[in-house]
Design goal:
Blueprint (H helix, E strand, L loop, with lengths): L2 H12 L11 E4 L8 E7 L2 H9 L4 E6 L12 H13 L2 E4 L2 H5 L5 H8 L3 E9 L2 E8 L5 E5 L7 H6 L4 E4 L4 H10 L3 E3 L2 H4 L1 H15 L2 E4 L1
Parallel strand pairs: 2-3, 2-10, 3-4, 7-8, 8-9
Antiparallel strand pairs: 1-4, 5-6, 6-7
Helix pairs in contact: 2-3, 5-9
Length: 218
């Protein structure tokens, strides 16, 4: 399948143009040749994940954390050079999608975590760069729970203000942990990487089902 068609599908289903993001979402590294026989998926666009994508025969790697942020890559050195050179050597294209995958109501990280927790009455919550990326809902036991994947510790105090009994996130820094403790907000940190595998796995399955393309999480 042509890379352009896959990128168009990803842009559409993820609604990437609707988000003001710190990540430069979309195709970040192109490749020689347009035909893709397999797509790999990973949380991070690291040298390790790019090499794993090449090893499994993928011509495209779709990730949550790409290598281009904010104003873009100003110098191709250090970490960015290591990832970009690995992709170019292996001829693996790189597509990144950040906040749109946090927020997607069907296969986003937070929607899937909320589903796993059995939450109902879901409401959008936790604004990041003007984008509502998390959710608040009610668990089967009646507790009100806030969910924000990745490094969402900064929203613990807000979760308390929203009346949550528990806030579930990936990770929180020390200051965010103290702030949560100060306001009495119980916080469960499940791991940044672990909470952002949900959408990656779901997006890989959706691509395989809708495009008929072989996919693999690496």
């Amino acid at each position: 399948m042509e890379l352009e068609k896959i990128v168009g599908w990803l842009d559409h289903v993820l609604k990437v143009r609707d988000f003001d993001d710190v990540s430069n979402n979309g195709l970040q590294i192109a490749r020689e040749g347009c035909e893709i026989g397999k797509a790999a998926f990973a949380v991070d666009g690291s040298r390790k994940s790019i090499e794993a994508a090449a090893k499994c025969g993928a011509g495209l790697l779709v990730v949550h954390h790409g290598i281009s942020w904010g104003g873009g890559i100003k110098t191709l050195t250090g970490s960015e050079y290591a990832a970009a050179s690995a992709a170019i050597r292996a001829n693996v294209a790189l597509y990144a999608v950040h906040l749109p995958l946090d927020a997607n109501p069907e296969f986003g990280h937070n929607a899937l975590i909320a589903r796993e927790l059995g939450l109902h009455g879901l409401q959008k919550a936790f604004s990041y760069h003007g984008n509502m990326i998390g959710l608040v809902g009610v668990a089967p036991d009646g507790r009100k729970i806030g969910v924000c994947s990745g490094g969402g510790g900064e929203f613990a105090v807000e979760a308390k203000a929203l009346g949550c009994d528990l806030f579930v996130t990936g990770e929180a820094n020390w200051g965010e942990r103290i702030a949560a403790e100060n306001v009495g907000m119980a916080m469960e940190c499940r791991g940044h990487y672990e909470t952002e595998l949900y959408g990656i796995r779901a997006l890989a399955a959706k691509m395989a089902a809708e495009l008929g393309l072989a996919t693999e999480v690496v």
